[in-house]
Inverse folding.
């Protein structure tokens, strides 16, 4: 069964450092997403991406965040200058809208710890 | 704006008892609703969606547009059902999740 893969599974970084989280969505999906989950809290929408541009972003997704699809397979989330409160699980997801399937498939997540 | 409400953060039931995880939504369009499950230390997985009207692992959920609800039900809880359950609503571009309900099945 096709999977969304994410790397790294866990990253520890110092406050103020830049972090890039990587995702390989399912190959025939066209809609990509980043969500985050702070420990013990809900899954929060960050950003959606379609046709090589951001289609929607939340208030969480401020100027320190950016997303990119640098090639045909990877989808990255960059945090320019990490803050303590960025510590969370970050989930990538891709959506299959073909034939009305509309199934959002998640990766296993990347745990970010900011010290 | 779309919103998904799960009123219970924690639901504890005994094994074999019926389970109902509540979900209410707010959305101006025609909703597509899902239940996702997250077992301990694992990724979010799709459990079921209202379009397919299926039963997965004994769980069912019916969309009630009048009450704007999509409650998840199972007649007899099993220990392996213990997990976090998230109700989710799909709009054109975005999936919005509820806060999640932790289901704890007591042996």
């Amino acid at each position: 069964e096709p999977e969304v893969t994410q790397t790294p599974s866990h990253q520890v970084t110092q406050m103020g450092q830049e972090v890039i989280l990587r995702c390989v969505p399912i190959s025939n999906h066209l809609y990509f997403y980043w969500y985050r989950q702070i420990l013990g809290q809900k899954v929060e929408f960050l950003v959606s991406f379609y046709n090589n541009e951001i289609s929607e972003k939340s208030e969480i997704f401020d100027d320190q965040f950016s997303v990119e699809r640098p090639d045909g397979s990877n989808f990255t989330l960059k945090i320019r200058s990490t803050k303590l409160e960025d510590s969370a699980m970050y989930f990538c997801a891709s959506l299959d809208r073909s034939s009305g399937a509309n199934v959002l498939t998640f990766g296993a997540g990347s745990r970010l710890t900011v010290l | 704006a779309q919103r998904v409400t799960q009123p219970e953060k924690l639901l504890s039931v005994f094994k074999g008892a019926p389970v109902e995880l509540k979900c209410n939504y707010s959305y101006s369009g025609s909703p597509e609703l899902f239940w996702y499950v997250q077992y301990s230390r694992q990724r979010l997985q799709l459990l079921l969606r209202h379009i397919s009207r299926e039963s997965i692992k004994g769980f069912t959920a019916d969309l009630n547009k009048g009450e704007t609800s999509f409650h998840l039900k199972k007649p007899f809880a099993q220990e392996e059902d213990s997990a976090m359950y998230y109700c989710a609503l799909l709009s054109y571009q975005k999936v919005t999740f509820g806060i999640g309900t932790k289901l704890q099945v007591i042996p």
User: Anything to note?
Assistant: The CA atoms of residues 48 and 55 of chain B lie 7 Å apart. The longest strand of chain B covers residues 83-90. Chain B is about 0% helix and 45% strand. The interface with chain A takes residues 32, 34, 36, 42-46, 49, 51, 86, 88, 90, 93-100 of chain B (CB under 8 Å).
